[in-house]
Every structure is written in C-alpha cells, then in structure tokens.
Amino acid sequence: MFKRIVAFLVSMFLTLSFTLRRASTGENNPNNEMTIQENRFAAENEFISMKREQKRLPTFKQEKDNLPRPVWESHDDAVDCYYKTWELAFSNLKKPSMFSGFVSNYIDTAFNGELFMWDSVFILMFGRYGSRSFNFQGTLDNFYSHQYKDGYICREMEQDTCKEAFTRFDPCATGPDVMAWSEWEYYKNFGDTERLAKVFPCLMAYHEWMQEFHTWPDGTYWSSGLGCGMDNLPRMQPGYSVTYSHGHMVWIDACLQALMNCRILTEMAKVLGREADVTGLQEERERLLQVVNEKLWDDESAFYYDLWKTGELNHVKHLGAYWALLAEAVPADKADRFIAHLTNENEFATPCMLPALSADHPAFSPDGGYWCGGVWAPTSYMVLRGLDTYGRYDLSHKIGVNYLDYVVSVFNDTGTVYENYAPMPGADGKPRQGGVSHADFVGWTGIVPISVLFEYVFGIKPDAQNNVIRWNIDLTDRFGVEKYPFGPDATLSLMCEKRANTAEEPKVDIRSDKPVTVEIYWDDGRQSKTVTVG
User: Is the pLDDT confidence value at 91 over 60?
Assistant: First the structure.
C-alpha cells in the first residue's frame, strides 16, 4: 500500500512538472493564447519533450587530472588561477530540479539563483575545454526546453521553478541573440552533427521571433540595457531608461548579432542539407550590411554607433560596436581605422584593456562603474575573436596577455576571480576588481584563465571541422598544454621550448592519438606539421 502511494505521488509530481513546462512554452496558458502563432521550426523542437537528465555530477577532485594541463615556465600563479577557475566551475554544476522544466545537467550562472542566456553562452566558451568531464554545452538545452510555440525564449529563468523573469513582450525579456554562435563553436570544435541537427530548428525559430518582434520597419534591431546584457551603459537618448527601455533606438550590437546569425545559420544549413530553409537569411544579411555601413557608421570618427529616433548617431563609443568584427561587417577600407580605437590610450587601451565604455566618455568610471567602463569577459572575448576574424593575431595576443596578467594579479591578492575588473588601477597602483563586482564569478570570468590563456596567450586556435590547429607562438618562455581535447575524441600534447627571442624558430614537441595538422606561426615564419599517431 505504501509503495503504491509513493508511486502515485511521484507520478503526480512528474505530471505537474510536465504541465508546468508546457505552460512555460505557451501551451495551456490563457495569458499567451491570443498572441502565439506556431513557428514551423519551433514545431521541430525535441527538447520540450526530453526526459529530465538523472546523471550524477562530477567533482573537481575527481576530474582535475582529466582536464587539459597548462605548462608555463615561471608563471605558476597563472596555472594556479586556471585550476581555481575550474574548481569554482565544478562547484556550480547543477542537476535540473523536478519543477524547473530543465532537462539537462548544467552550470549555474553564479549570480542570483537564475539561469541567464547571455552568461551561459560565454561560460560554454571555456566549458568546451572540460567537455570530456562534463557536458557543459547541455546547459543551453534548458533554454530550448522552454521555447514557446512561436520561437520565443526568455533570457532569464529561475532554476528551482518554472518561473521566467520577464513576460514575452517586455523590452528586457530576451537577448542578446548569440546562442547560434555558441552552438557553431561547439560544432567546429567537436564535429557533433547530431547535436547541430537538434538545435538548428530551435535557433531558427528564435531568430525568426527576434526578426518579427525586435525590429523596426526598416529591418534594424532593437534591445534594452538588460536585453543586450550591458545594463547601465549610457547610450540612450535623454528621457529613456538606460536599463529598461528600447528608446525607439536602432541598437548597433543587436543589428550586428543578427548579421552574425544570418551567416552562422546559413553555414549550419549547409552542413545539414537544409539550404532551402535559410533562403531569406542572405537577403536579411545584405540589407543589414547596407544599413550598418551607411547609417550606423560615422566616417569622421571611424566608428559604428547606435541611432536615436531623431536620426542622430549617439556618438557613444562602446564595445558593443565590435560585434562588427565577428559579424564580418567591416569593409576592408574601414577595418584599420575602426580597430585603431582599441590601441588608443584615451579610448579602449586603458591599463586593463577593453573597458565596455570608451575612456573619453564623460560617464566613464575609473573603477568600472559596472558597464560604464568595467572590463568584462564576454565583451573582451568577443573582441578577441573578432580580431582573429580580421587576421589581427598580434593585437589579440597583446590584449589577451594584458587581460590575463590583470586577472592573475588580482587573483594573487584575493585568491579568486571577479565578475568584472576596473580599467584603471587603484590608488596603490595595483590592478583591482570592478567597483561593483561579484567574487568567485565562474560564471563567465572563467573565459580568462582558461580560454584566453589557451587561445590568446598560448595562441592555440582549434579548428576540428578541418582537423587543423593554428598555433601562433609569441611567448619566449617554455609553455604548452597536455591532455588538450580536440575533435570528437583526439587528445594532444603541444609543447614549445624556451627561445631567446620571438624571431627564433620555435622548437615544438607535438603528440597526438589521432592524425592532425598543426600550422605554426611566429614573427615572419610559418611551418606546417602533419602529426600522425604518437
């Protein structure tokens, strides 16, 4: 009798959980019934009906020896910071609660007990290096499982309930639209076509929802301070809330993210043989490219800006404009002048480089002021990746070294990493965390001691899709990585010996359990090595 009662209660709990999840997607929800029209791609969403994952969570202690092992002569503190970051990451792994509607084990945003879309995308940029120990990419499954029938996905959800932080048409409800970038990066690293096929319709439905509900008549996009992720950035016309309003403004970052999505979704469709599903994306991309470069570019200052409803550019230089690099939106004749702002000490080349707001703006805060000058992992990493797109590996290395040095310096003083960092040192001349900044933030700050270390300080850029690793060797110390994960199942060791100077040809030792090509670059030299097993 007792067993039957327990079984009945469990059944009721599971039924309620499923009902709540369906309600979150707009079904059986009278408040949404009048506004939802089913999207053909959302109808393919497999995540809504997925069973809740029950797999046990790994611990840092169990998995430490399975993680990539950095080696860097005379930089033990950077290596210590690297492992501290992973320790914090593993402490934030969670299982989906019965009533959340979540379907996969995930990494917590480490902010307020809610899961954030924007944060998760960037957490996964370093999480992929630990994918042999935990499926970090599965974190995004929990957003797809909450997709509405018309494609909408809320950007912030409580982890223990089905509650979403915003209603669908709140200007702060969703964004930024960068999940496709995360999934494409994962595919390029691991070649997981099965996952790509599952997420593609979810991403297409979400893009089409944004296209329908977050654009102006000319097809340009809008967002809000919370919706774009840069909460208090002073970019709005006077009279509008910098945090909560769209301001009737054309948002440069939202336009560029849509541009990037058009390219990525088209590439996904080619892999999946679904080209017929993306015929409209090329037209949208061409239209946005024209608007961005004709209406949002100021040739005198060589910068992209937001456009106020008055038809005036706001002339606020912020890092959101640098999505233009990743979107491949900057014409060749504009690129050098646009990138030059990053090396201007009066703009973005502060002691800790890449403040969110240019240092010549009246609202710039030396202690960061959150987004009024704070240095943040997501925007900095976006700029670094964009510089690679334009072949500026020299500058991305310089900025990467600067950023890692700053974060490690604060780690040496505090024993942890922070949500953001001050662009200017304190009164004692030492690097410091941002004036408003959470500690133990892993969280997206894990990007710096892990991804920035591997990709921009060590210079190792994986391209598993083509079975190639690009290795830009700029350091002269002995350095490298052991147990480096590459592709579906390859593991490499890449070591470089100490050199007298950067012009000296590097002596490398590369070992792999699968064939791989490593292209090595240094100063003006280049060498390609095809490594067989061993």
Answer: yes
